[in-house]
Amino acid sequence: YELLNEPAADSAAQWNDLLANAIAAIRKQEPKRVIVIGSNQGESYSTFTQLKLPEGDTHIILSFHFYNP
């Protein structure tokens, strides 16, 4: 699953809260399902440092978008 394409939450904290809830719900039903996650503000690679992801979850793929040449 990809949780959301180009998320634009008002803050990193809001996006991280949504991620935590969504990941927990998915893991409850499908512990090994691959989840694709982008960072806040349009999946910019520069906001990866703000992501708070569960440690040890080897079924998460980070996605980013880059529109500059």
How many distinct beta strands? 2
Largest beta sheet: what is the strand line-up? 1-2
Relative strand content: 5-15%
* Main pleated sheet: 2 strands, parallel
Please tell me how large the radius of gyration is.
Answer: 12 Å
Shape: globular
Question: Stretches where pLDDT falls below 50 for ≥5 residues?
Answer: none
Q: Roughly how many Å apart are the termini? A: 28 Å
Q: State the order of secondary-structure elements, H for helix, E for strand.
A: HEHE
Q: Oligomeric status of the shown chains? A: single chain
Tally the structural domains: 1
Give the structural class.
Answer: alpha+beta
Mean pLDDT: 94
Number of helices: 2
Helix content: 25-40%
